[in-house]
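Re: that chain you flagged

S.,

Sorry for the slow reply, it's been a week of failed gels. I finally had a moment to sit down with the sequence you sent. For the record, here it is as I used it:
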Amino acid sequence: MEYIGAAELTRMVVSAAAAIDNNKQILNEMNVFPVPDGDTGINMSLTFKAAVEALSQRSSDNAGKTAELVAAALLRGARGNSGVILSLLFRGLSKSVTNLEKIDAEQFANALKAGVDAAYRAVMKPAEGTILSVSRRAADTAVMLAGENPDIIQLLEGAIAEAYLGLEDTVNQNPVLKKAGVLDAGAKGWVLVLEAWLSALKGEPVEYSDAAAQPEAGLLPGDLGADEEIRFIYCTEYIVNISRSGKKLDVARLRALHESIGDSVVVVDDEDIIKVHLHTNNPDKALGEALKYGELSSIKIENMREQHTKQVIEQKNRAEKTPEKKYGFVAVGAGEGIVGVYKDLGVDVIVEGGQTMNPSTQDILAAVEEIPAEVIFVLPNNKNIVLAAQQTVEMTEKKIIVIPTASIPQGISAMLAFNPEASDEENNENMTDASKNVSTGSITYAARDSEFDGHSIKQGQYLALCENKLAANGTELSEVARVLINDMGVSEKNFVTVFYGEGVSEEDAAAIEALCRESSPDAEIMLLYGGQPVYYYIISAE
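Prediction finished late last night. Pasting the C-alpha cells below so you have them in one place:
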C-alpha cells in the first residue's frame, strides 16, 4: 500500500478504538505508573470514543482534514495522563499532514515522528519506559524504513516489531514498573493502536467485542504498592476555552503554577483551547488559577487513592479465588457437531481453530484461565498448535498438561481414556497412548495448483490425507475416499466414525459411510454431523 487516504485513516481510527475498548480491562489491571489507579484502559477508550463520535458526525475526502478532525476530538475528549498523551501523539501527526489529500509512507513515518516530538514537548517531565519511549522507538523505525520501502504495510509491520521490543523493555527502564513486575499499560495501549491500524489497512479492522479480553500471564502487576506511594491524590483535568476569553494568555505561567502544586503535568496549548492534566492535592488552586484565563469546561477530579484501593481489593479477590474442581479440559476444534461431541465428553472450553486457523498461545491461555480447576488438560488437535499450547505451561500458576493430539479424532480418543480416579501422570500417559491408537483421515480440496509428495495437484481437486500425508487426489470423491479408507486400514478396525462437514448433505455423507462398511462389514460405524470448515470429511478408525 503506497497511500493512506481519508477513508483508510477513518478505518484506522475506528479499528484502534475497538482494539482499546476490547482490551481496556487488561490495560486497567496493568496500570501502576505514574500511579496505580487502574484507569488507563478506560481513559484511552473514552479518548478514542470522542474521535469516533466526531467522525460519525463529519467526514472529509482529505486525509489531512480527517487527521485534523480526529486530533481535535481526541484532545477535547482526552481522559487521564494516557489519554492526553494519546491525543498529543495524534495532534503532532495531524499537524505534519495538514492539507494532504493522501499520505505516502515517508509522510506517514514523519507524521508519527512529529507526534512523538509533540508529546515530549508537552509533558513536563517525560519518563522512559512509558508510551512515550515506545512510540519514539516505533516512529524512529518507521522513518528509517520509509527511506527503504514505499509500502506502508511493511513500514507499520516493522514499527510494530520495534514497539514490541520497546514494550518488553519498559519493565527494565521504569523503577515503578520493575518493582511491580509489569509492563507499562500506556505503552501496551499504543502497541494495540499500531496493530489495529495495520489490521485496518489490511482490510481486517478490529471489531468491537462483547467479551472483555483476558490479561496475558506476566502482564498483571505482582504488587500494586501501597496507597502511601500516591503523593498527590487528585487526578485533575480541565479545558480552558481560549476562543471565548479574548485574553492574552501566558501559558508558561499556567504551566509553572501547576508544576508547583503537583506532578504528571501536561499542558497542551491549541488554537482554541488549553487542555490541562495534573495530579495534585489542591485541585481548587489549579482551577482557581485557570479561571483567570477564561471559561472552563470538561472538568474532572478523581480520587486516585480510592481507585487504588478498589484495584487492591480486586487483586486480592483474584488471588484468593479457589478452584471449584480438580480437573478441567481445553480442546481446539471447529464445527457445531464436533464442539458438541467435545462438550458431551466433558471439555470445558473449546478454542475455535484448526488447520488454516491456528489459535495463538494467548487464545489457549485465556481458555485455561477461564476454567476454575487445579489441573487443565489441553488437547491442541493439530500438530501446528501443539507448540503454542505447550508455551502456556510456564505462563500460569495452574498445572497444565498438554496431550500432543494431532487431530480431532485423537482428541476424542484421549478424552475417552481420561479417568478421574487416576493420577495426573497416569492420565497423561493413558490419554497420550489412546490418541496414538487412532487412525485419522480427512478429505478436503485443493485451493491452487501445486506439486506435493510426487503428486500433481490441480485447483479444485479432492485431496485425501492420511495422518496429514497426501494419500490421493482427483476429481472423483468416491475414488479418492476409497484410497483413503484403504490407507487408513479401516478393514482391520473395530470402530469407525465419519464426521461430515459444513455444507455436506447427509445423503452424500452416507455414501462415504457405505464405503467404510464395505471395507469393514463387522466394524461399529457411526456417521455424525461435525460441521467442520475446510474438511468435507474427517474419518476416525481404531
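What I noticed first: Residues 220-224 have pLDDT under 50 and may be disordered.

Talk soon,
D.
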